[in-house]
Amino acid sequence: MVKVATYFAMTLGAFLFWQSMDKVHVWIALRQDEKKERLEREEEVRKMREELLKKQRDSLA
């Protein structure tokens, strides 16, 4: 009986561990995606700003 209870407890523990690891991996992946999107937006804003400054300099010259 003790062996069955121990096996059940270990199985339950392993299941809970893998479920939590899955959630951690999903959370990490979402954070990486958000960071990538933010960097892409910042790069796009920087390019647009450079283009506008170039056009402004050209129109003043």
TrEMBL record:
Residues 31-58 form a coiled coil. Keywords: Coiled coil. This is Uncharacterized protein.
